[in-house]
Amino acid sequence: MLIKKPADIPSSEITPEAQYVNRRAFIGTAGALALAGLAAPGTLSACTPADNARPGEGEGLELEQDEKVTSEEDATSYNNFYEFGTGKEDPKRNAGSLRTSPWTVAVDGLVKSPKRWDLTALLAGLAVEDRVYRHRCVEAWSMVIPWQGVRLRDVINRLEPTPAAKFVEFTTLLDPQQMPGQRTNVLPWPYKEALRLDEAMHPLAMLATGMYGKSIPNQNGAPLRLVVPWKYGFKGIKSIVGIRFTTTLPGTTWNDAIPSEYGFYANVNPTVDHPRWTQAKERRIGEFLRRNTLMFNGYANEVGSLYAGMDLRKYY
Amino acid sequence: MTSAQRPLTGRAVVRVAVWTAVVGPLGWLAWLAFSGGLGANPIESLQHRTGHYAIRLLAASLAVTPLRQLTGWGWLIINRRTLGVGAFAWAVVHLSVYVGLDLALDFSQFFEDVFKRRYIAVGMLAIALLTPLAVTSTKGWIKRLGGAKWNKLHRLVYVAMLAATVHYLWAVKRDITLPVVYFVVVAVLLGFRVVMWRRRVTATRLSASVQQGT
């Protein structure tokens, strides 16, 4: 089963932001959803298998017996979001200055019609799903987070990239007024991330608008962030204002900044060390002993084929 | 006599401040651990905090001699050992948190880290250099070695200080603001000694040439 409702989250009591935003489009686009081959959105707690899952493909997505959802307090107070400071507690402290509504996303590059989308329109009618994913930071800590959001592929299909598009690039808001960390040059701003288009079209890749059944907090990347659970956390770009389709591999922030430490692919891989620490193990937030890190963060059955034949030591 | 009392009170205040700096963090950490103030990743928080304590106390111990020379307060010297041994103690706690809590006594991982990661290697070097200094910090050892030898041995502290700062610089991911601040402090502390040493050399030469001239 792909989707699992965390037992300890009373999400039934809260309407997720994305679903709320989409409330009008929810019913109206049922036909379009059927055309797109998507499962009906259903209720929050529905266990919807991946629409194009091959037999057995969904296996491994479930958490192991000993894995628990990370406490909401920890997941929203221990963050890397350098736009609000480089300390783990800085984003929570400083992200209040971010205005997430209204919010637009500029779409350009190799698409049918480049334009600036209002976020509500961009997501309108798309199936909002619950996904409980492992989140593995490149710094060897990890969490388990219940996300709410849409599949990235649904958004991409809506944007209609041209056949020449091979990569999709994302950009974070650039506004030092709202993002005090951007007043320093600790990273080149704005933050950019990118995926190969086939990675982006994978059913596990999502654009999250909520977590823990609530709208996503500013420090976690409100109002729209990327979640690619088989990759290190820094790929999950936050507060997205730009989506661009390209033929050539786009530059990405950490890869550009320190290429020897952060690759473009950044797939979770216990056999390829970071130069300064082992990636074989990770500290799950809330636990004492380190866990073994799983290949592709435990999603090898689902995403392994994307990288068939690739030298993952070279393309780390 | 007020003139005699004033330096005495000053001494006491400095002494209390120094001991607070050395022992106080223990209470602070206990409070943070108790109140949840160590955050979502308490082991990492402990690692970072203990490292900062060690490096700051070491810098403080190196500040004693320049302060004595600048102020003429010879009595400050007693604090040098307290700060130096305190720095070593916190460095040991720092190492213990890493090996005992972070690695949960996985020694094969520890040795892999020491040999593969330069920031850990240089951190271990700092602690290795501080160990003989902590051992020979007693009056007995000063006597046994003799002042000149003891002083020579304890110059290792400069190397340890640099190693500790480099360890920190290499350990941080991207934001090197604080390591750079530490480097500036260390540069000032070591620079002061270079200046004093050059002055001494010049003074000796001068007096030598004056003696030759007469």
Features:
heterodimer; A: 316 residues; alpha+beta; seven-stranded mixed sheet; B: mainly alpha; 86% helix
Strand and helix map with partners:
The complex is a heterodimer of chains A (316) and B (214).
Chain A: H1 17-21, H2 25-28, H3 30-35, H4 72-75, H5 90-94, E1 104-109, E2 115-118, H6 119-123, E3 129-136, E4 141-151, H7 152-159, E5 167-172, E6 192-196, H8 197-200, E7 206-211, E8 214-215, E9 225-227, E10 240-246, H9 253-257, E11 281-284, E12 291-292, H10 300-303
Parallel strand pairs in A: 1-10, 4-11
Antiparallel strand pairs in A: 1-2, 3-4, 4-7, 5-6, 5-10, 7-8, 7-9, 11-12
Chain B: H1 2-35, H2 42-71, H3 78-102, H4 107-116, H5 118-135, H6 139-145, H7 147-154, H8 156-171, H9 177-213
In short:
The complex is a heterodimer of chains A (316) and B (214). Chain A is of the alpha+beta class and 316 residues long.
What would you report as the Rg of chain B, rounded to the nearest angstrom?
20 Å
Q: Give the beta-strand count of chain A.
A: 12
Distance between the termini of chain B: 46 Å
Strand content of chain B: under 5%
Shape of chain B: globular
If helices are DSSP runs of H or I spanning 4 or more residues, what is the number of helices of chain B? Answer: 9
Poorly predicted spans of chain B? none
Instruction: Please identify the oligomeric state.
Output: heterodimer
Computed structural class of chain A: alpha+beta
